[in-house]
Amino acid sequence: MYLFKYILKRIVLMLFTFLVIITMCFIFIKLLPNIPAEQFGKDMALILQRRELLGYNLPIMQQYARFWKYAFQGYFGTSEVLYLGQDVWSVFVQKLPFTVAVNVYSILFSIPLGLVLGIVAALKKNTWIDHLISTSVMIVVSVPSFIYAFLVQYILYFKLGWSSATMNATQGAFSWVGFTSMIPAVLSMSFGTIAGFARYTRAELTEVLTSEFMLLARTKGLTKGQATVRHAMRNAMVPIFPMILGEFISIMSGSLIIEQMFSIPGVGKLYVSSIQATPPDYNFFMLLSGFYTLIGLVAGIVIDISYSIIDPRIRMGAK
Question: Does residue 319 have a pLDDT over 60?
Answer without folding.
Answer: no
